[in-house]
Amino acid sequence: MKRSTVIGWVISVLAVCAFAAPSFAISSPQETPQQKQIPASRPATGLRETLTSVATPAPPPMTPSEKEEMTGDILMVRKLYEKAIETYQDLLRQQPKSARLHRSQLLNKIGICYQELADPKQAQHYYKMAAKADKQFASPENNLGTIDFGHRKYKGAIKHFKKAVKLDPTMAAAFSNMGYSYLARKKYKDAILSFRQAILIDPAIFQNRSSAGAVVEQPGNAPPGLLYYTLAKTFAILGNAKSCAHYLKMSRDEGYKKYTEALKDPAFKTVLKDPRVQAILVPKPQSADSTATTDTQVH
Asked: Residue 198, Cβ neighbours under 10 Å: how many?
């Protein structure tokens, strides 16, 4: 074989390998046996065809009932609660009573719609029906707790929230709702424990609030400054200095006079040296020069 031919052959092989190698980087960590058997020297086009052939198949088309329920959910999100109730009621007439879980979910959604329409009596009625339809479904118990909370029946609310988290230990909203109830009863340690568990399950539980799902999240009725200070303390216990500083600032801005007690509270010990926390608790006095500059800029 001529030298030029050999060199050309080597360059061709290297080119093919260089083109094919990056294609393996996009494959899923859980490679199928078919993917593992593909030789490295195979052209990239063949690899792409194989990846396409083993891709997850498209989901089956929605049934008419599923489409109707989605319509109801969209109406609820758009706050068209009366129309959403009509849609869910129509679905209930179509559902066999043997489908306990789905029936319970529809009844629970109707309850939420009535609660959003400021009709707690009807909401409670449907929540109780939902809880009876499926005794393992946690959402109706949580939502019944929010009705009691709205009536300032905090003991009853806590009882429902405890039952909800027993049925579903991952329900962050039920833990946060329980925290609000304990805070309303001035049981601060229990409130912090409840808030802590809610945050561990869902770190964004106090950022993303929505009543369009199956679980109602209670906003609480404690003074905002006290609530924010309690949340700051909870995040301090979790070692989250950033969120601690955020809620300390909100507590201060709401006029809560005792927010500086964090300086002596052992719960804040792990975050006190953080500059963000220090900036709230021990703000640096503004110098005369900086004040003059600010005044000049304002004028």
From this structure: 24
Q: Is residue 22 part of a domain?
A: yes
Helix 224-237 vs helix 188-201: crossing angle, to nearest 10 = 60
The pair of three-digit structure tokens given for residue 264, joined into one six-digit string = 């002596």
What does the buried/exposed string (b/e) look like for 14-32 if buried means 16 or more CB atoms within 10 Å of the residue's CB? eeeeeebeebeeebeeeee
DSSP category for residue 83: H
The tally of domains found in the chain comes to 1
In a domain, 30, yes or no: yes
Answer yes or no: is 45 within a domain.
Answer: yes
Distance CA 124, CA 97 (A): 21
Helix (H, G, I), strand (E, B) or coil at 240: coil
pLDDT digits (tens, 9 = 90+) for 65-94: 889 999 999 999 999 999 999 999 999 988
- 3 C-beta neighbours (distance < 10 Å), count: 7
* List of residues 6+ apart from 256 with CB closer than 8 A: 223, 225, 226, 228, 229
Q: What is the pLDDT of residues 123-169, one digit of tens each?
A: 999 999 999 999 999 999 999 999 999 999 999 999 999 999 999 99
Residue 78 domain-assigned? Answer: no
**CA distances (Å), 166 to each of 87, 108, 129, 186, 206, in order?**
31, 18, 19, 23, 22
How far is the C-alpha of 202 from the C-alpha of 214, rounded, in Å?
A: 16
- Please check the confidence at residue 289 and state whether its pLDDT lies above 90: no
Query: In this predicted structure, what is the pLDDT of residue 56?
Result: 67
User: Residue 35 is part of which domain span?
Assistant: 8-49
Contact yes or no for 139/108 (Cβ under 8 A): yes
Task: Check residue 58 and report its DSSP letter.
Answer: P
The 8 Å CB, 24+ separation contacts for 62-66 are 65/91, 65/94, 65/95
What pLDDT does 299 receive?
36
Tokens of 19: 């083109």
Place of tokens 């129509």: 90
Helix axes 100-116, 139-150, angle to 10 degrees: 20
